[in-house]
Amino acid sequence: MSNILFTSKATAQGGRDGHVKSDDGLIDLNLVNPAGDGDGKGSNPEQLFAAGYSACYDGSLNLMASRQKKEIDSTVTGGEVSLIKDESDGGFKIGVVLNVEIKGVSQEEAEELAKQAHDFCPYSKATRGNIEVELNTKAV
C-alpha cells in the first residue's frame, strides 16, 4: 500500500459476543449478537459498519457539492446495514440502505450528487460489486 494518509486500528476479541476497542480508547464497546440470547446491551459489527459508512458517505457527498460550489446541508439517516442469509453458500452477507436527505438543491441535483458521492466514497468503492447498496435520495 502506498500513499497511506492515516491508519485506524481496533482490536476485537470474542467475535459477535465479545469486545472491540480502538487503539486510542475512543471506541470501547461490548459486542452482542442480535440473534443471541444475551442481555442485548452492546453494539454489533453491522452497527459499527453503518456508522462508518454513513459518516464516510456524507463526507463524500459534501465534498462533491463543494467542488460544484453548491451549499448543502445533508444527513445520511438510517445508514442501514442488514445481515442477510446467503442462499448461495448457507452463510451470511450484508446489504446497505443509505437514506440521504439534502437541503439546498433540487431533487434532480440531489440524486446526481448522491450518485457522485457513491462513486467517490471509499466505503462504496470497497464494497462495490460485493454487496447490494440502495440509495434513497430526497431533496428537502
Q: What would the keywords be for this entry?
A:
single chain; 140 residues; alpha+beta; N-terminal domain of TfIIb; GMP Synthetase, Chain A, domain 3; 2 domains; three-stranded antiparallel β-sheet; three-stranded mixed β-sheet; 3 helices; 31% strand; OsmC/Ohr_fam; Organic hydroperoxide resistance protein
How many structural domains in the coordinates? 2
- The percent of residues in helical segments reads 25-40%
Q: Could you tell me the radius of gyration in angstroms?
A: 17 Å
CATH topology of the largest domain: GMP Synthetase, Chain A, domain 3
Largest sheet: 3 strands, antiparallel
CATH-assigned homologous superfamily of the largest domain: K homology (KH) domain
Q: What is the end-to-end distance? A: 40 Å
Percent of residues in β-strands: 25-35%
Based on Cα principal axes, name the global outline: globular
Q: Could you state the order of secondary-structure elements as H and E?
A: EEEHEEHHE
Mean pLDDT: 93
InterPro entries: KH_dom-like_a/b, OHR, OsmC/Ohr_fam, OsmC/Ohrsf
Pfam families: OsmC (PF02566)
Protein name: Organic hydroperoxide resistance protein
Family: Belongs to the OsmC/Ohr family.
Task: Give me the secondary-structure topology.
Blueprint lengths: L9 E4 L5 E4 L5 E3 L14 H23 L5 E13 L6 E12 L3 H14 L1 H6 L4 E8 L1
Parallel strand pairs: 5-6
Antiparallel strand pairs: 1-2, 2-3, 4-5
Helix pairs in contact: 1-2
Overall description:
The protein has two domains: 1-43, N-terminal domain of TfIIb, CATH 2.20.25; 45-139, K homology (KH) domain (GMP Synthetase, Chain A, domain 3, 2-Layer Sandwich), CATH 3.30.300. Helix 1 crosses helix 2 (107-120). The radius of gyration is 17 Å and the shape is globular. With 140 residues, the chain is α+β, with helices and mostly antiparallel strands. The protein is built from three helices and six strands. It has helices at 45-67, 107-120, 122-127; strands at residues 10-13, 19-22, 28-30, 73-85, 92-103, 132-139. The model has no long low-confidence stretch (mean pLDDT 93). The strands form two sheets. The chain has a three-stranded antiparallel beta sheet with strand order 1-2-3, with no helix packed on it.
